[in-house]
Amino acid sequence: MKHSVAASLATLAATAIARSNPHQCAALATDTQLQGKVLLPNTAAYNAEVDTYYSANAAQHAWCMVLPESTADVQATVKILAKDQCPFGIKAGGHSAWKGSNSIANGVTVDFGYMNTTSYNPDTGIASIQPGARWGSVYEFVDPYNVTVVGARTSVVGVGGFTTGGGYSFHSNSHGFACDNVVNWEIVLADSSVVNANASTNPDLWKAQKGGSGNLGFVTRIDQQTVEGTQLWGGFTSYNLSETDNVFNAYLDFVENTQENSPDQTIIALYYDYTGFSIRSILTNNEGIANAPAFDGFLALPNISSTLTVGPEAEIIPQFTGPTPLGLYANWFTGMATNSFEALSIINKLHPEYVAKMVAAAPTSNFSTLIEFQPVTNTMVQNSDKRGGNILGLEPIVADGPVLMWLVALTVDTEENQAVILPIAHEFVAAINQNLQEAGRFVNWAYLNYAWGNEKPYSHYGQANLDLLTAVSYKYDPNGVFQKLRQTGFKFS
Ligand SMILES: Cc1cc2nc3c(=O)[nH]c(=O)nc-3n(C[C@H](O)[C@H](O)[C@H](O)COP(=O)(O)OP(=O)(O)OC[C@H]3O[C@@H](n4cnc5c(N)ncnc54)[C@H](O)[C@@H]3O)c2cc1C
């Protein structure tokens, strides 16, 4: 009897090890190219990597993680993953929030965290950036050359996910999305070959990767055209809630009057935490010009506080970033509406109703809701097209004028509170869409980089773009490795 109990325990233990560390991890860990680059569970290095995820939802425990240090390492990795039919996930900066966006529980996470360097060629003005870099490090690296990049508006965000998903920047009115400024992608394909994709070599792959996220291969280097000058004027301005309608009107006027290639941009945001509700704007000018006339409507309003200042992006963008604590339960949802007072008012009215439901469901939770409104303008889309175009499908969306992109970001303190608050956030999002539809203010588009796992961004990007993405996937990944084995992020299929 004793013997059989011991035997069963041994079998259970062996099964547990096999489950947590299957043969694919052994193949990766013993590959000569990858030695020392595979992290196994229950090690300090593995646990430290799990802690680098922005949202606790996303930080799943993979069978093992591969942290490539070079393109050759990525080639060795994909060879084993494809041969062994191993499910895998892709992580760069780890800032996508939903479970399954960038890590995998039953498979191997390929984590680009160690491929994080930037180089710059002053002759061409091109910055070559590895996908695991954070934007803050890129701004700092190129700053001494008096150039900047079309990157994220917070310094902690990763280059890989941001750029392959689009990338809305402080330079978007004047330069389009981050992906539009990529003059060359270096990509490791499913067959482990390395290709460059640019306007003359593999141009179909170049375009499809501008929004293609993880559908086509592992992006190992991003060559981005830089922008001259580093100075950014901008900051947060907080207003009394009684000014809400005036802030909305200032925003709508600003957006309607956006000039071609404008250096000026704005975001307005509604916020709730345990201290109450608030409203603020983020005004920026990417030429470092203070108080440009486009902001007159905002600047005329009385404010509670303002951090507007001018300085190099390498210094100003970390100030915008503020504390973005890791390990909380962050959840992002997005959608689109007409650029209208009615659309803003609908969301503003629903916000406190659903916050009240959240408070009632989890009275002790320290949660916050942030609702950001930012425009997609005609000049942004023209700047995308001028640079070769992307697959976001925004041309018909802005055909009648600029539109309003909304983002709901819910951040919850604990898993238990998240379990009761998240369903209410889903109801809130459904109510936003329903009310916008009933008012004739709904626009059928969702931005991949802000979308929750169920939002299917590719279904909004238009048939021609979907056809391109599908054709490029069949051409460069005929066995569908990045459709079948890749389990993270959004698939077009
Ligand atoms: C605080 C904060 C601020 C943000 N600010 C902005 C902003 O200003 N503008 C904006 O547009 N978005 C912004 N975002 C959203 C952001 O663009 C996305 O979360 C983006 O995915 C983050 O990039 P990442 O490298 O951290 O992605 P990860 O979460 O690591 O990866 C997301 C997905 O990207 C794909 N991917 C990543 N690396 C590669 C690669 N090497 N090859 C192929 N596919 C890859 C994969 O499909 C992966 O599943 C912000 C997010 C946060 C949390």
UniProtKB/TrEMBL annotation:
Give the protein name, as stated in the record: FAD-binding, type 2
* Residue span, FAD-binding PCMH-type domain: 56-229
Signal peptide range: 1-18
List the Pfam families hit by this protein, alphabetically.
FAD_binding_4 (PF01565)
Superkingdom assignment = Eukaryota
What keywords appear on the UniProt entry? FAD, Flavoprotein, Oxidoreductase, Signal
- InterPro entries, A to Z: FAD-bd_PCMH, FAD-bd_PCMH-like_sf, FAD-bd_PCMH_sub2, FAD-linked_Oxidoreductase, Oxid_FAD_bind_N
Q: Which family does it belong to?
A: Belongs to the oxygen-dependent FAD-linked oxidoreductase family.
| GO molecular function ontology, one term from the record | oxidoreductase activity
